[in-house]
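INPUT
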Amino acid sequence: MHFRLKQRSVLPGFNLALGYTLLYMGLIVLIPLSAAFIKTTDLNWTEFWAIVTTPRVLASYRLTFGASLLAALINTGTGLMIAWVLVRYSFPGKRLVDAMIDLPFALPTAVAGIALTALYSGNGWIGGKLALIGIKVAFTPLGVVVALVFISLPFVIRTVQPVLEDLEAEVEEAAACLGATRWQTFRWIIFPAVRPALLTGFTLAFARCIGEYGSVIFIAGNLPMVSEITPLLIVTKLEQYDYRGATAIAVVMLVISFLLLLLINLLQWWSRRRHAA
Amino acid sequence: MSIAIRALSKRFGHFTALDSIDLDINAGELVALLGPSGCGKTTLLRIIAGLENADAGAIQFNGEETAHRPVRDRKVGFVFQHYALFQHMTVFENVAFGLQVRPRARRPSAPQIRAKVEELLSLIQLDWLADRYPSQLSGGQRQRIALARALAVEPQVLLLDEPFGALDTKVRKELRRWLRRLHDELHMTSVFVTHDQEEALEVADRIVVMNHGRIEQIGSPQEVYDTPATPFVYQFLGHINLFHGRAHSGWVRLGELRVQAPEYQHAESAPATAYVRPHDIDLLREPEDGDTTIAATINRVHILGSLVRLELRQQADGEIAEVEMTRDRYAADPLQVGDAVFAKPRQLRVFLNDGQNPERSELPLWSGDGDGI
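OUTPUT
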């Protein structure tokens, strides 16, 4: 079979660039991740299965992936709205708000976690008021969602913003002239245009949430079976020098994350193909 | 549907886009709003559509006030310069959009929509493109699709904002004729904005010439070209030569030239400018009696297809003037560079430099859009 690795291109530096990319990906991503897989081979299949399916571990998967999904979904909705407001309206302090959006990126996650815990705990500023109507945030799964929403806020906004900026106002005017209501214009004109960016933002936010550790452990309370996330479980095992157990759980997380991201990417690819011109 | 515009004004900050515009557009008429960029023509069109609000004044559709009617209830078809097609929809979906978004009670059934879209696509002769996406089409095709999309909702008025501005010359000329034919078939009240005088002269029933947010002249293409009401219209439509001089008791002296101007009977040595079209000048070999000619030498000869354009240098002051004639006339007496001639304006128009049109004195000698008439 004739296998063509390289296509002739007018763009220079293909060999060098590709080689560098592969080396970099290998050093930064592939080798550390495969190390986790190799470490798990210390375990046999039964041991591995026993470790990764204990009720406490299963509960942590549910919490990590469930809360991450929920937080990413919340941020997809609000992120779209915030991006819309920032692109379409001008108001005093707009630049300040725009700059504030990136703060969750810059803030040490532990700081975020402690601040959120102080705010949402039973005697906190917001938590105290919510407690009056019977909602408990800190030290519950809800607290986990709150922390994840905080740290994954910028993703959707920053991916959708440029797309909205590029969207011509004329297209919306055309829709209005054709008799479309504001909602119809959004549903049929604006939304399809930002959908790929929205999906990208969602994916990034989701991935970030799955891996989040620092901010969550402060607000979650870390009750086994209730508010304990998988990354914490891994750290706990490490602290007990149970390296094999830690890597086993890590591998499961890695596989699930990879499958989910692959699925979202396929969805993206499919949606782009369907609407691509 | 007729449109009546009354004392319409619009400002953007300190910039006056429209300054008390009054305009009547008759039902079934094709009107061109013509003017240089920044003259307010697009703003006027957008206010008619309801895409922009006026600061003062009124617009009536068939005698009915429109100020509080939102865009989507105005029944206007709007065609944008850059098409504004929905990129993620096929041609068919684009054209069907206006029908799809109707409230259920007024929405045609799916087969009715299909029939309507197919009818429109065959009207614009692009039925074979129904399943393509806009990015797969040429500019001319996109603009025709945009027009079909606007027509699908059966608007009462069709508004076109520089519809052919983004297209190349050949396609532009083709689409121009096509638009005129389409208008003759549909008889829909149409207003189109353009800065291209040739386009306006060729397509429109009536031309509204605008400048600095005001209307300079309204008239048929022939009227605005042959009898411009203001110096601005003169210089904007077609090419002109300027001759500077003075008006005095019904006569105007422009260098060696002396012409009668009964309208300036009471002028006393008032500075004046005469406007002459290049094709309104005869070139003679011998001077005529009675100060009717200007002595000049041929400076340059351009043969431009069916036309010959000659550049003259006036002997008195060295100013350049241009003359256009047909190839046939040129062939009868082929003047050469350096030949001495006597230019005799067949038709000219004198305006006083009374400060009412301050830009007049700064008019370039040879002006117009460059496209030529």
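end of record. Chain A has a mean pLDDT of 88.
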